[in-house]
Amino acid sequence: MRAKKLSRDKHQHDRSDHRQEPTDPAPDTTNLAQLRHAAAGCRACDLWKNATQTVFGEGKPATTIMLVGEQPGDQEDRQGHPFVGPAGRVLDQALAEAGIERAEVYVTNVVKHFKWSPAERGKRRIHKKPRYSEIQACRPWLDAELNAVKPQVLVCLGASAAQGLLGRHFRVTRERGKMIVSLLAPHVMATVHPSSILRAQDDESRRAQMRAFVQDLKQVARLLRTKHPLPLSA
Asked: What are the backbone dihedrals phi and psi of residue 182, each rounded to the nearest 5 degrees, phi first?
């Protein structure tokens, strides 16, 4: 029995399109407003207990690009909007330099609640990386967003998003900036999370990492400017 269970678990983890039903499943609708309302009451994992609110994705219902990060941060949790904190400002700058308007992009996270621990001193809330089980508990909401938006280009920002969508063995360090064959969208790419740029050791490293991030996003911009139209989703 144990051998069969281990084999089944490995098969599930390796599937890039694995679905896991939460306690409160996402409703069968492509209406983003209805999905956002339903997600506000999600109790599929325990992260809601210490979060201020659910932070659902935002953007036009039928946009071309979807950016997926890890989870809301402190400011996102307080304000209820994705990518409005320091990492969001880095993302805005990179998008602008790449020639992509933020208003034309749908932004979301693989986890919709802020996972944190209190700082040893003061009132700061320190980000904690979500567990794979927490990412999978939230997966139906992301699947619902993908189904509603039907992006032509899906960009995974960071390891948590990439592994949550493309499999636990996916490595951003090896596959960064490459177009990946996936059923999730006609064009799929992984790059770093903008928060990693903020953690650079010095200004020179930060500028170099920012340039590389912008170059990744410029690939997306070039893809959208091609003379040939992007293929429609199946």
From this structure: -155, 150
